[in-house]
Amino acid sequence: MQTGRTTPQTRTEILAGVSTFLATMYIIVVNPAILSQAGLPFSGVLTATVLLSFGCSLLMGLYARNPMVVAPGMGLNAFFTFTAVKGMGIRPEVALGAVFWAGVLFLILSVFNIRSAIVKIIPKPLRYAVSAGIGLFITLIGFENARFIVANPATLVGIASLKDPIILTFIFGLLLTSVLVIRQIPGAIIIGIVLTTLVALPVGRWWGDASAVNFGQKTLVNFQGILAAPDFSLIGKLDLVNSLQWALWPVIFAFVFTDLFDSLSTFVGVAEAADLYDADGNPRNLNRSLLTDAVATTMAGLLGTSPGTAYIESAVGIAQGGRTGLTAIVAGTLFLPFLFLSPLLSVIPAIATAPALVLVGAFMMKPVTKINWGQLDDALPAFLALVLIPFSYSITQGIIWGFLTWTVVKLAVGKSNEVPVGLWIVDLFCILALFSGH
Fold it and tell me: Which stretch is the leader sequence (predicted)?
């Protein structure tokens, strides 16, 4: 009788794991597409992405016993590429070293339970604003990658001509993927990527636009061009020494800050959706989950990718009935076959992954509803953090000005009690970062 009771639940957990994988597998394509713009090889990042997602999802399932997938985080990969490498001119190997040290710092914060003190330091409106600001940043990157938003000397930026077949293909992909997501089709984002790629095939052939489909020497009917051995070239390529320079500490801090609050919001959100609370009312196995997240960031630097984090898309599997670590184990295992598909996946063009970036940005906007926009001394610092992230093309700048403005405004209106002592320390690091030349 015991077996009869557990078998249906096991089947449910497996199906939940499949659903979670379908909801998160877009990262296999999108993460290499973003990090390759930082000068890292597409195939190497794909291998690192798969290994990290597999290994750390298993750790989440076996150690933390929670039904959540761990993979390189959206927003964190954008920060790596567009702020650290392109914006600050940091070599990719040094940026990977910064990821590793951020993971080590995150581990220390988790082991000694310092993270709870940090959570109390950072005002909630700023946390919500940074999350939404990163969403806007990712959306801007998606529009830029699709060449939908372009430079305009008269207005700084503008929309490209709709006569361009590339733009029309992107719009088709964006609308198609949006409908699939709204209708809650399993694997909606990856289906949108595949279908947009297929539509882009004639664009690449007839118009000869390299941004449509990168054929190279590969064809979809040549299996030697589809399969390849995993590319382990990025493993251990991080620069541990130069990444400890003083000028890099704002980068390390930004990685830790973003990863920490992204993780906490994910665990709280998933716990709320599935009622996964412990006896004290905290998300179930929170300490182990955060420790797993910290390990994921540390391993990311070693493997050759941006920091790993728990995915809110895990809620898809939870909605299917996933409640145990088996869901994460199944989802993580499904990443493995993609180790051998880098040639095929590298064919996918930027206009096919761009709709995914735009929609992920939309998903990340939800926290702005938690900001009290009628309370201006809360709203204005949050607003600056929110808009400066995309407008300055830098997550770091949004965080810095959000913190500093919060402190100044609160002091000016006589609410110094809302500026914790720890925030003064953070402000000091923010000021030093502003005058460090970056």
Answer: none
Q: What is the pTM of this model?
A: 0.78
11 alpha carbon, distance to own chain's centre: 30
Read off the pLDDT of residues 76-132 as tens digits, 9 standing for 90 and up: 999 999 989 998 999 999 999 999 999 999 899 888 877 666 766 888 899 889 888
Report the distance separating Cα 71 and Cα 302, nearest Å. 14
Q: Which residues pair with 149 in a beta bridge?
A: 159
Asked whether the predicted pLDDT for residue 431 surpasses 90, the reply is no
Q: So what's the pLDDT on residue 31?
A: 95
* Pairing, β 149-152 against β 156-159: antiparallel
> What CA dihedral angle connects 89, 95, 97 and 99, to 10 degrees?
150
